[in-house]
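pinning this so it doesn't scroll away 📌
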Amino acid sequence: MMLLRLVMCRCQAGKNLQQIQRTPLRQWLLQRGQNTVSSSAASVGSVSIRSAASDRLIGRWLLGCSGLVLGAVVLGGVTRLTESGLSMVDWHLVKEMKPPQTQAEWEEEFAKYQQFPEFKIMNHDMTLTEFKFIFYMEWGHRMWGRLVGLAYILPAAYFWRRGYFSRSMKTRVLGLCGFVVFQGLLGWYMVKSGLEEKPESYDVPRVSQYRLAAHLGSALLLYAASLWTGLILLLPANRMPDSRRLLNLRRFAKTTGGLVFLTALSGAFVAGLDAGLVYNSFPKMGERWIPDDLLAFSPALKNVFENPTTVQFDHRILGIGSLTAITGLYLFSRRMILPRRAKMAISCLTAMAYTQVVLGISTLLLYVPTPLAATHQSGSVALLTFAIWVLAELRKVPK
């Protein structure tokens, strides 16, 4: 009897417990807990998706900015080749964005240009129509530079406000935006060197080759940094087993990329000194492999940066050295198993290297025609582009 009563009590307790669990309050609490867990999981998922999406957005933005910098480099080269860089004799951040409109404004601008050495020595018979051409070339280059600045700074401010940048990316973006501002100031500092009166010099007015090289070098650094950051954000890293051969390939690729950059930078000294016009033969320089006036200046180090013969000789050596290094990188990579994208990048780099050498030799033999010389200058940036792509494909996967 006692056993039967005990079983009945337990059954009644079980029913009461089920009723408690089925009460509206209990069901609401259970549902609330499930919703909280679900929303937490969804929140975690949305953060990771947003991070990947923001990385793609930032990567595309930086690739677009690097494309604008490439355009500025090409346009700057054409401006230099058409001898248009000294046509605007002052600098105003906003005021000069509007070119002269009326005949009186054009005559006023032309009168200012006539006060400087380039007009007095080289262009004393220039007409107003001819002046308008070189003015618009320089004006276009400056306006393109302002477009580059806006393309960096305005989206950077938006992404920063939206919280798209990680801490490390904030440092990079600040550096890039600061470099854009520095590049603009350096451009005017370069132009000023060509506007100065030099009574002791009998040479044609031109900008300092040192400042020209600094201006081009900083543009190439800005381009390389933007392109590299954009590529590593957009291209997934190739997972390759670590080996001594792969380590050597990475080192080889870095050295080759540095040599490509140095060769492009040496081209600024060639352009600044018009060194492409001193020996228009290949492979010899005139009748000799090593010209007599290679070390004509004293001290000897001065020849490297100021002697047109030495500057052209050095550019030849660097170009041939870059071609040799890239060929060696290609042959070395053929002996390894690499991802498809990495092989494609190295092949493109090799093809561009041979194209660039052909362009350089043709430019030299034809006495530096403007279209061919501009193509050769653009080819140097294309070669640097492929070198950076190779480095991005061979980069080490962070652990």
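📌 and the second one:
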Amino acid sequence: MAVPGSRACSWAAVAKAVCERRLAEGAGGSPSPEPASLRAALYVHWPYCEKRCSYCNFNKYIPRGLQEAAMRSCLVTEAQTLLRLSGVHRVESVFFGGGTPSLASPHTVAAVLEAVSQATHLPADSEVTLEANPTSAPGSKLAAFGAAGVNRLSIGLQSLDDHELQLLGRTHSARDALRTLAEARRLFPGRVSVDLMLGLPAQQVGPWVRQLRELLHHCDDHLSLYQLTLERGTALFTQVQQGTLPAPDPELAAEMYQQGRAMLREAGFRQYEVSNFARNGALSTHNWTYWQCGQYLGIGPGAHGRFIPQGAGGHSREARIQTLEPDNWMKEVMLFGHGTRRRVPLSKLELLEEVLAMGLRTDVGVTHQHWQQFEPQLTLWDVFGASKEVKELLDQGLLLLDHRGLRCSWNGLAVLDSLLLTLLPQLQEAWHQTSPSPVPEG
């Protein structure tokens, strides 16, 4: 937990008081006066897990003699460095992901948050989320994370069927998951999210729907439905390839998704993104930054970021990824102040492709105002208004293009990937038609 008397306690104490006041008032986050180029979200990657789940190919490691103090120091240093390089004036949310960040000590979380608050403006009511697994997050530790400054939890529940949990390689049981969820809701009322997976090998629609119905009796105001993706290099992929497990049935998975989203809508949840559902306004503001193509800084081994390095004189957004392996990442941070392994400047077209693909994942879609922030000349009407292929999608009721902007219908949101196969080439064609050709030299 946060060390009594440490500087890390000061920000957390203020943040806790402000969040309690704002929750009592029913208020959301404070509006930001800063321009978008001076605001960012911050993602912190904790790369360690108790064990490797059978389906997961994330950048994670089983710790062998972990020196957490060294990891903590490097996370703080990299946060300070990247905040300086970005020139960001305000961090609007922080997300501790992994790996299993609930394995870290609350002191590490507190140290990172205090470093951020000293380097830039971190409003006391900023959303600070921690991913937690049931077996690594007893109630006393969750409370300590709250004292460290965490005000939202995302629990990797994944299933309420013990056989499925064993198949996935999870270390908890359904009973463990529900016990942790109840404790989390007591400590963080209205600010607990849970994940539920669908489309597992041999999984059937009826039993999965019953799991979701059971979960609705226990969950808080945010729930994510994720379809299993078989990733090469995972144990589950190998089992399916070798025939020891049946391949997931995509048609059954689609039916689970459709029934699940309908059930959640009936229960008062808004499907505000392809996989995410919230009621009582409990949207994830951190993830909303991703879907709105806002800037975000990624710190920790393998973390990804998207920001303009204004503090270093940069003028265009870069896609960044940090060094993957923790020991090598720490060496680079100690030598250079950060462990950025790769920097790729994004072209204007690449950025617009991200604005389109990410924005259409939400129920709001891409508004005209939002599009103009990234492209003031070429409008959504210019790009899509005269396309026969897009008109077919509009006529089929999968897309809407009107005075608000471009967005998916309820049915369209379920088949977004297929819609993008039409929309992205249309954007590329319109861009190349309107962009001036390079003038040959000489």
